[in-house]
Amino acid sequence: MNRLLSRRFRFLTFASIFLLAYVHGYNLNETYLTPYSTVSERLTFTTWFEYLVSNGLLRFRIPILFGISGYLYAMFDNAPYGQRTRRRFVNLILPYVLWSAFGLLLTFLLQQTPFTLKVLQTASLDQMGDNRPYTEVPWTDMLKRLFLAPVSYQLWFLRVLFIYNLLYPVIRWLVAKVPAIWFAITFFLWAVYFNLYFIESQGLFFFSLGVWLFTSNRNIENPPTWYSQGLAWIFFIGVCVIKTFMAFELEPNTTSTFVLLSVLHKLAVLSGVLAVWFSADPLVAWWMRHPLRKQISGYSFFIFGMHIPLLVYVMYAARLSGWFVFKSRLVNYLIIPLLVMSLCMAAAWAVQRYAPRLYKVLTGGRGL
């Protein structure tokens, strides 16, 4: 892999993780947005803008991260399978459990005062749908929260990526022998949100695409002849804007709404991946000149693990306490994620400096 492509990978990985702040940091009444979510509150510029950014323009990130992961995993597949699996367990599953425990501990501590308990119950982050204090929850349910349904819900990416890594020999064989059939199947599964236990379909198509791009030695630095950067951006932004307006107008919880918003979401993701990937070089060049680039980008995994549930709790605490900058939800949406990300980076710096062994375990050896 040449230097230009390596820099693009590094920049887009960090940017995709940092932008999670604005995917997860909205303060809409809808506490958890899915690709096909509608919005029950009144359409204002603030609610429209937050939905547009959080549930539209920034949804390209996870597919890009899965694609990069597949490409890099295929690039370094010369090590024995058992050795790679053990390494990925340390890189992915151990941090998954530790950051899940951090989320549970933070939630437990915040349950000890009436105001912060109210914040947690309003945020409703519990994936098991039970927002009681943990002292009232059976220990078996706490184990489920730790390993299967963490309150730090962003960790699903690590779990799914580990499963893909386990299945890599099968994925590589299918990509090499029957690529058309395999991509047709995985694209369909991605389109219909198919999940089978932990083999979730939302990243399988893009992970497989990354494997195929490397193993077939495809040129991914330059756009194909049929590609138009201007049209890609117009289409991408246009679809996101249309979807956002429809989310406020369509009848919720109907099949037609689910299908229409899902189709628009998929179109936005595909066009967004292309638009961002082939437009990144000017930003990469700027980023490479940034004096703090190496230090900040090294914190990306720590930021990923720490920012949820912290960000959501801070945002809802601001809403419930009336602490809105200039009494503006929009200003808080723009500022609070930056503050929380700054706190995450400060924590990363402190742990890396004063507890480097802990930092190594929490990040799976990254950023050292």
| SS-derived structural category | mainly alpha
Helix content: 55-70%
Domain count: the total is 1
Q: Going across the major beta sheet, what is the strand order? A: 1-2
Regions with little confidence, pLDDT below 50 for 5+ residues: none
Strand content of the residues, in percent? under 5%
Q: Supply the number of helical segments.
A: 18
Could you explain the architecture of this structure?
With 368 residues, the chain is mainly alpha-helical. It has helices at residues 3-18, 20-24, 45-57, 61-75, 81-110, 114-123, 139-147, 156-166, 168-177, 179-191, 204-215, 229-249, 255-277, 281-288, 293-297, 300-321, 329-354, 356-362, and strands spanning 195-196, 199-200. Strands 1-2 form a two-stranded antiparallel ribbon. Strand 1 (195-196) and strand 2 form a beta hairpin. The radius of gyration is 21 Å and the shape is globular. The chain starts with a helix and ends in a 6-residue tail after the last helix. The model has no long low-confidence stretch (mean pLDDT 93).
